[in-house]
Design goal:
The protein is mainly α. It has one domain. 55% of the residues lie in helices and 7% in strands. Helix 1 runs antiparallel to helix 2.
């Protein structure tokens, strides 16, 4: 039997009128409304990532003719697959442990000219009931990055084995092989990670053309895969309530997690600061990125370094500990000290 709410009676000559609304009906209406929000955000993110895909692959800024939007689909579909795998990894793990959670809220990011824009800031899910055990915390935390990493790896491998011929880059930059190419402007360079370098060594033959990291963003599957590694590494940093923080807390407990979290923050802070100094003083060592300093500040002031406690502090079983160490190997493989840099083409 559902609870009901009713309005105050209206005083008039006619008999009193009551309006009854069942809690079940209100909950159903609320659920339907939430579905519209989730679907609407997904559609908006699909649009913004498609526009970003056209910008990355063609080098042209919007507005675009409708027919051009097809060029952005390989990028947008790849990005959304990675994000969706990541978030639904969390979602289904939460369901398994009977933790109430929302569907993913996709976060669109509209195109801004001359601004580095991937078309999205990812997605989030929100838990609506407490997580009572370290085992549940671990499973929910680790399921997202591992699922997203598998999708990222698949897209990267597809991108590496399907690199288009050199004519592709010449359609974008007809003067690419000219000695004067790029000397008048700045170049945007994506930083290498260990995994990206390994895949290049495995799949790229010496005689074939493969774009440098200053042109990799024109190749949608490689660009989306690189972005997947980037967001995986950001989420897997073992700080606070990031995915890596959940895993670290569940594996090592409160005190050791806080020590690890503090060390990770210091490493990020120093890496970010060295990126600023490297750029300001013109050393061009390529070590550090100012964005890591910004991320460190977000972690310290907003996300916080300390993980909230959970009631059940039972130690994880051996299998989960192995999965946890594998997830930190994924962090090492995906992380780049200098993921994005802008400078003169030499």
């Amino acid at each position: 039997m559902s609870l009901t709410e009713f309005s105050e009676p209206t005083f008039s000559n006619s008999p009193p009128q009551y309006t009854y609304t069942t809690t079940a009906r209100k909950e159903k209406a609320k659920k339907i409304k939430s579905y519209f929000i989730h679907v609407g955000l997904f559609i908006l993110t699909f649009i913004t990532t498609t526009i970003a895909g056209v910008e990355w692959t063609t080098g042209l800024f919007p507005p675009y003719e409708f027919s051009m939007l097809a060029k952005g689909l390989p990028y947008s579909i790849s990005i959304l697959i990675i994000i969706t795998f990541h978030e639904f990894g969390h979602y289904f793990a939460a369901k398994y442990h009977k933790v109430r959670s929302t569907l993913p809220f996709y976060i669109p990011f509209p195109p801004i000219q001359y601004f580095i824009n991937f078309g999205t800031m990812g997605a989030v899910i929100k838990t609506k009931s407490p997580v009572y055990s370290r085992k549940a915390m671990f499973d929910i935390g680790v399921a997202g990055p591992i699922s997203g990493f598998i999708a990222t790896l698949a897209i990267l491998i597809y991108g590496f084995v399907n690199v288009p011929p050199v004519e592709y880059i010449l359609q974008i930059h007809p003067d690419y092989f000219s000695p004067e190419y790029g000397k008048e402007g700045l170049q945007l360079v994506f930083g290498d990670s260990i995994l990206f370098m390994l895949l290049r060594e495995i799949f790229v033959h010496p005689e074939m053309f493969f774009p440098p990291m200053s042109e990799i963003y024109h190749y949608p599957y490689l660009c989306a895969g690189w972005f997947g590694l980037f967001i995986t590494s950001m989420n897997m940093i073992p700080v606070g309530q990031l995915d890596g923080g959940h895993i670290s807390f569940a594996m090592f407990g409160d005190k050791k997690h806080y020590a690890i979290s503090s060390i990770a923050f210091i490493v990020l802070f120093v890496t970010g600061l060295s990126g600023i100094l490297d750029s300001a003083l013109g050393f061009n060592f390529g070590i550090g990125w100012s964005g890591w300093l910004f991320w460190a500040m977000i972690l310290y002031f907003i996300i916080r370094l300390k993980h909230p406690p959970v009631p059940d502090i039972s130690e994880l079983d051996f299998k989960r500990k192995i999965i946890g160490w594998i997830s930190f190997i994924i962090l090492i493989l995906s992380f780049s000290l200098s993921p994005i840099s802008i400078g003169n083409l030499l």
